[in-house]
């Protein structure tokens, strides 16, 4: 556990930048009684991005490539970029984290709190494409967590029907966007976004398995 000032010094960034990362959800922190923040051990795995994330369309192309899905209409230059990104992911200490950073623009993440009585129904709702924690092959039991993708044109009705309250750190994580396909690569990226040890371990397992299949 580290204070924000200690983390900032270790990473060579300003305290303001560190607080910004906490507010954005990139780093997980606990609030002490005096109001100060303590970062958990997983925060030390964070590193500055090497470049901007891929566009939404290219993010899904990269995920599809990792899933070995057939893709038509890609230009030679785009295929070369995807091969380069796959090579960088393969070389990373935490390949799932590298993947998640590259595809962070795939959808907008919104967090909510839902009543525990509604969790099962929400997870089974056809408007929610389940991913991340609780998805098939994730290695994680969902419990009271619901995580998945929701199309922009139905997200408001989902929020209304289940009386979801927008809350950072809530038990419902909805990524608003049109996911063209849902494979193991997206599940791994979603798990890595949690920034916690167990989720990152399972995410790395999935990505390494996928990399072996396309080797």
How many structural units, i.e. domains? 3
What is the structural class? alpha+beta
Question: How do the helices and strands follow one another from N- to C-terminus?
Answer: EHHEEHHHEHEEHEEHH
The poorly predicted ranges are: none
Strand content: 5-15%
Our Rg estimate from Cα atoms comes to 18 Å
**What's the arrangement of strands in the largest beta sheet?**
5-6-8-4-7
Q: Sheet with the most strands?
A: 5 strands, mixed
Mean of residue pLDDT values: 88
Q: Give the overall form.
A: globular
- The count of β-strands is 8
Binned, the helix content reads 40-55%
Please give the alpha-carbon distance between the first and last residues: 38 Å
**Number of helices in the DSSP assignment:** 9
Summary of the model, kept short:
This protein has 215 residues and is of the alpha+beta class.
Reconstruct the topology from this structure.
Layout: E1 2-3, H1 4-11, H2 15-24, E2 29-31, E3 37-39, H3 56-66, H4 76-91, H5 95-102, E4 108-113, H6 119-124, E5 129-130, E6 146-150, H7 155-161, E7 165-166, E8 172-176, H8 184-192, H9 197-214
Parallel strand pairs: 6-8
Antiparallel strand pairs: 1-3, 2-3, 4-7, 4-8, 5-6
Helix pairs in contact: 1-2, 3-4, 4-5, 5-8, 8-9
Notes on the protein architecture:
The longest helix has 18 residues, at 197-214. Helix 1 packs across helix 2 (15-24), helix 3 (56-66) packs across helix 4 and helix 5 (95-102) packs across helix 8 (184-192). Helix content is 43%, strand content 13%. The protein has helices at 4-11, 15-24, 56-66, 76-91, 95-102, 119-124, 155-161, 184-192, 197-214, and strands at 2-3, 29-31, 37-39, 108-113, 129-130, 146-150, 165-166, 172-176. It has a 5-stranded mixed β-sheet. Strands 1-3-2 form a 3-stranded antiparallel β-sheet. It has 3 domains: 2-45; 56-104 and 198-214, no CATH class; 108-178, no CATH class. 33% of the residues are buried. With 215 residues, the chain is an alpha+beta fold. The protein contains 9 helices and 8 strands.
